[in-house]
Design goal:
The protein has about 90 residues and is an all-alpha fold. It has one domain: Orthogonal Bundle (Non-ribosomal Peptide Synthetase Peptidyl Carrier Protein, Chain A), CATH 1.10.1200. The protein is built from four helices and no strands. The radius of gyration is 13 Å and the shape is globular. The relative contact order is 0.16.
């Protein structure tokens, strides 16, 4: 999962913070409350997650528990990729 975290932090740093590493919040901090991301940024983040990790983010999953904070994002991607792998093994 460390690779997933580095990939997500890289996206946040490059795309949302424009390289300003000093503004990168700790993994457990809220991206919204720290001012890193807004509603447009969340859409960009969802597009990134879907393309980078080959997952589908359903509207019902666009909640802070999944998308607000690096730790939440890492856990969410882990759950989604594990589900995808189980489904592909079952078929």
């Amino acid at each position: 999962m460390a690779d997933v975290q580095r990939t997500i932090e890289g996206f946040i740093l490059d795309s949302l913070l424009l390289g300003d590493a000093d503004r990168l919040p700790a993994p457990s901090e809220s991206l919204v409350e720290s001012g890193v991301i807004d509603s447009t940024g969340i859409l960009e983040l969802i597009e990134f997650l879907e393309a980078e990790f080959e997952i589908s983010v359903h509207e019902s999953e666009t909640v802070p528990e999944n998308l607000d904070g690096v730790a939440n994002l890492v856990a969410y991607v882990g759950r989604k990729t594990a589900t995808r792998e189980r489904e592909s093994l079952a078929s």
